[in-house]
Amino acid sequence: MSNALAQEKTGESWVDLQLYGNHTTGDFDHTEVAIFIGKNPWQSHGVARARQVLREIARDPQRAMVVIDPRLSETAKMADYHLQLAPGTDAWCVSAIVATLVQEELYDKAWLHRHATGVEPVLRALRAVNIKANARRCAVDEHLIRTVARRIAAAESVATYEDLGVQQSPNSTLVAYLNKMMWILTGNFAKPGGMHIHSWMFPLAGRWHAIPPAQGAGYGFPLRRRLGTAALKTASTPLRAVMATAGRRGNRTRRAATRAAALVLDGFFDAVAVPVAGRIAEVLSMSDRTGVTPVSGARILGGLVPCNAIADEILTDHPDRLRAMWIDSSNPAHSLADSARFRRAMRALELTVVVDVAFTETARHADYVLPAASQFEKHESSLFTLHFPRNTFQVRHPLMDPLPGTLTEPAIYAALIDRLAVVDEQLIADLSAAACAGREAFAVAFFATLEAQPDLVGLTPYLLYRTLGSTLPAGQRSLALIWGFAHLCAISQPDAVVRAGFTARGFARGEQLFDALCTRRQGVVFAEDDYDDAWRYIQHDDGRIHAEIPELLDELAAVCATEPCYTSAEFPFVLSAGERRSFTANVIIRNPDWRRRDRDGALRISPPDAQRLGIGTGAKVRVVTETGAATTVVEVSDMMRPGHISLPNGIGVSYPGPDGDHTVGVPLNTLTAAARRDKFFGSPWHKNVPARIEVLDEQPIGGETTTGRTLP
């Protein structure tokens, strides 16, 4: 399995797992010093009310903003400190900042002693960093680096945010580690304005982690857990049969079944919920799926194969090579490095199936295409629940009926599983009948079934859709999956869910949350944490941050002994392939006419480079890399430093017109190389592509130089 996270976030996710076990988020509303590394929140957001928050930080003389970015981005223009480093040198820059904290004794010794372990090897490694040499390597003034480190150390609070600008550049996993050292070494965790591990509706990355309630376990907890677990496993069939029989009879019998199920849940739910839910969440999140791929030996994290390794696993005669590919709501023939090679890999497969809302570049190379309803025609939601202390989740409702010939993805998968006949029809019928008796009766039958038949746990979404979903109002069958999310969330974070207003006890709390998620279309605050709760989210048994990652400390020493060089006489520029701009989108909006500005997705280039090449804004050039070439127009922009050029993301997809399909803008991955990737988890170097520019027409110097939008 793979998805977009496998070409963005796996390095950072692995670092998080080693340090404390889960994802962190910054309290940018209250932080004194905000640090953005390869991140331009003015355009890419990632922070709630991003533009307003940036304005508030910029206007407050007691606060400071630090931006580490080769570009003079919209956010960098607002920053108090802009470290405009050479492209691809983030590891040298950030290590110099962190080394300054250590070498100038600016780190919080007492806090580290109380809350962290493995600190001394980290300090020893950072004392060995040559700050002056690393400043030279990243082309940032050493005094500026030291000034930023001192400002971090002096602050009451610090929050950091790294994003694709660095996560798709060289040394991304190492930079993720060094980034986190900035706030760990200064004790900026679990405090207003600092960094926090947050709640999840369901973990998008990392492990599902249950936080015990502050009030402790109820009366006779160990005995009730043993009895309840044994009953679920050994009495699964009779429990399901009783609840199903009740569901098939009259209202009086159904009410009796509901009362009986409620008694069972009242007596045992709190005792058995965590182990039962944990087994379900572990399978569905795939957090324990690690190892390496069979052909290329690429590291797998959370079940995700690095995107840049997928073609390697196909274009070979290895006996364990990939033979088929199922592609859902993804366009890898456009979005993965070296598109031509990926298309060759698709042709080499024995079977390819695409499920999508559009006839994408990938769909055109597939054996089968299953058309899905669009996001306006179905219930949908996002698991990017990354906020602290108040976390939110929204179920978006359909605005119109699906087009004829399309189905929602749950309906597509349910139909396929039906045809495969991997689940006994009688079991489906029994669980559906139990659901008719009530959700309490269904819960007892459902969880007992999964405990007795753990091989069905991976089919939990299907089972919910087919059974509980059949009892929901017309058109809402897929909301049965939200029922599962609601209960897993309420079980894992009971106190936070109670503080968010869901105060019922036991099983009823998850029901209360489910009803709110289905009916409050504006979204729901599902968890509200205290700042101290961040400590309870740490997944190490000792409750401490484990600062030492030996593999990355060795890598730090190796990087600091290396001179960065990404260009050559043949390819003198570094191309960042995929810049977020005002009118770019993640290819979900394929019609180019929606872009009111920069319709063609111009190549941005610095004024000195444009002067040297004799071109101005509007000139046509060819961008050439080791894997391909593309023609584009030029925008001369003072955002760019000399030697650095960029093209926007979300461009270069085909769209039908009166004269047939046409493509506007550059398909970026005709220019990128799959072999250029992070050594640890294979993240592509999309933001660091050696390139050259060939001028195609005579263009007088003096075309307009853009400065970006004037910020209010």
Automatic annotation (TrEMBL):
| GO MF annotation, one | oxidoreductase activity
The answer to whether keyword Oxidoreductase applies is: yes
Q: What is this protein called?
A: Molybdopterin oxidoreductase family protein
Q: Which UniProt keywords apply?
A: Iron, Iron-sulfur, Metal-binding, Oxidoreductase
Is Ligase one of the keywords? no
Q: Which parts of the chain span the membrane according to its record?
A: none
Q: Which GO terms describe its cellular component?
A: membrane
Molybdopterin dinucleotide-binding domain location? 573-689
Q: Where is the Molybdopterin oxidoreductase domain positioned along the sequence?
A: 21-398
Lineage: superkingdom: Bacteria
